[in-house]
Amino acid sequence: MISSVPQLTDLTKPRILLMGPRRSGKTSILRVVFQKMPPHETLFLESTHAVDIRLANNNPFLQFQIWDFPGDFFFNRVSRNGGEGGGGGRELGGSMTQEGEGEGPKGRELLDEVGVFGAPAALVFVLDAQDEPYHEALTRLVDLVARGQSVNPSLHVVVFIHKVDGDLFLSDEHKVDCQRDVQHRIAQELRDASLEHVEVSCFLTSIYDHSIFEAFSKIVQRLTHQLPVMENLLNYLISACKMEKSFLFDVVSRLYLATDSNPVDMQTYEMCVDMIDVVVDVSCIYGVKYDAKGEAEGPVYDSDSSSTIHLSNGMVLYLREVDE
Ligand SMILES: Nc1nc2c(ncn2[C@@H]2O[C@H](COP(=O)(O)OP(=O)(O)OP(=O)(O)O)[C@@H](O)[C@H]2O)c(=O)[nH]1
């Protein structure tokens, strides 16, 4: 369930701030992950002209705001007390769209660093891997990190090395080389800006496979206070039930909210997502009803060795037995 957010002042929900150059894929990610848009339909998306804020509210553990920034967003030069702030750059951002309403004067607010970073947040910088050289984009990233850190030292910084698909990225080796190169350059730029203490996580992503869901899952987990407890519970579960791996999924978005401490491999994750799709499809045909939030009515247990348990609030627990 994703809806527009009526005001900027809601500090109770953590924020995921999607930033990065124009056409790098920010809106596509939002649409594919949270609004089930088929990836090829993103080809027809128009550029974002004002900050678009949405609320993801699928279940008690998945509640956050997603801010989609225009590629050429600059912080407003007018500071909170009304004077000239240290923002620099053109005054571009500062308006907020609401679904179906466009930018009405009611939605307008000045967006300075405090307005953007002054709450628990993850900065997700989307870098188009097919758009080398990245120099300009990385300079922009470091500028954002510096601004974010000055307001919110616990800001999570994540870089999506995005669009690693198609003919350009056929081999895994090429992807790994690209990631290594970008990480190296980011570290260098951060050192030059005396920001080497900032931890930046990089993910290779594409909307054409599950990588974007895996990466987004990790971000959501970082913003979830209950994560250590959930991980512990899943650890107990797999050891008590002799399971190989367990995930706690949000059915609607297919993001996993927690997993046990065994390593995650992409194939298992993909298999689980496919299985959820099958279970949802079959359940729809054979009588388990789902409401608009994807919640099953009552718990359902499969007798198969790979079991799926529907919990309340649209989450699914996936269990896989250890092969004897
Ligand atoms: N090959 C490939 N193309 C992608 C991917 N993600 C997005 N795109 C394409 O990139 C183009 C730009 O996507 P948008 O989502 O509009 O980019 P944006 O960053 O929101 O752009 P602005 O609003 O201008 O800042 C579209 O044609 C998408 O189809 C991806 O993972 N792989």
TrEMBL record:
GO MF: GTP binding; GTPase activity
Keyword check for Cell inner membrane: no
Gene3D superfamilies: 3.30.450.190, P-loop containing nucleotide triphosphate hydrolases
Subcellular location: Endomembrane system
GO BP terms in the entry: cellular response to starvation; negative regulation of autophagy; positive regulation of TORC1 signaling
Record has Membrane as a keyword: yes
Region entry Disordered, spans: 84-107
Catalytic activity: GTP + H2O = GDP + phosphate + H(+)
Top-level taxonomic group: Eukaryota
Protein name: Ras-related GTP-binding protein
Record lineage: Eukaryota, Sar, Stramenopiles, Ochrophyta, Eustigmatophyceae
